[in-house]
Design goal:
Layout lengths: L15 E2 L4 E7 L2 E8 L2 E8 L10 E6 L7 E4 L6 E7 L5 E5 L4 E2 L4 E9 L1 E6 L4 E7 L4 E5 L7 E8 L14 E10 L5 E2 L3 E3 L6 E3 L5 E2 L3 E5 L5 E6 L11 E4 L10 E4 L7
Parallel strand pairs: 8-14, 15-19, 15-20
Antiparallel strand pairs: 1-7, 2-3, 2-5, 3-4, 4-6, 7-11, 8-17, 9-16, 10-15, 11-12, 13-14, 18-19, 18-22, 20-21, 21-23
Protein name: DUF432 domain-containing protein
Organism: Desulfurivibrio alkaliphilus (strain DSM 19089 / UNIQEM U267 / AHT2)
Length: 267
Amino acid sequence: MTVPSTPNSASWWQPFEVAPGRHLDCRLGTLALAIGHGTDEWLVGTRAIPEEEAEPQVSFQIGSGPPGNIDERFVHASEVNTVTLMPLLADRPVVIRPHQPVFLLSGQSITLYLSTPVWLRLLVGEPPVLLKELPVLRLSDTWFGPNTREGELSYAGRTNARHRPSELPDRPHRAITPLTIHNRADSPLPLEKISLPVPMLALYGDEAGRLWTQNVTLTRESQGDLASVKIDSKLPEAGRNLTRLAEPRQEPDRSGMHRALNLLFGS
């Protein structure tokens, strides 16, 4: 297989070549990443970019010499010069808060398109060797649960709770999860906080460079204090010409799960 020397921004997760004595500068959403190829070693430097300054497209540039900023060095002797930036989902659930309060009335359903920042595996050589794994955007830690004994350590995120894929901005550093919620109880369901089980989801890339997961369905049962969680085994419908990029970090229960309502919605 011929490995390109210039990455394609639409399929930026494909392997490409960084010859010895050269380096790659990459800007991926909220991450500025530099990877240099030295003598039997790889040099890595990173810098955070504020989310309001994140570009809608991935940018790459190959330059001569080592990177201008070097945080870490990895010893690796190989005749293969390939580098792969492989995206994957976060290692914990992401607790998402809508910017405005949202209430799902009794008997109603809604599909929201939520996005969460991805992580990257930096791989070199063939077969690929992992240099490190890092988040493209470092989210704050949060505890999600009714008390300190029930719940789990998660990441905190925000959302505009958009209803249609066409409303989503182009953000290559985020994966989109279609979340369908059914409220079968007699009372309204406040969607103040939603725990999205991203470690149980697979990651897909489409032909435009967007990242997707399967559909997740949360159903509040009629008794009101229980909710079921179902992760769709089918490909997400919104993306086109999807490629599976990463497996789930945790294997989901294929038959679905039932959890206390306050462990899913924080209510």
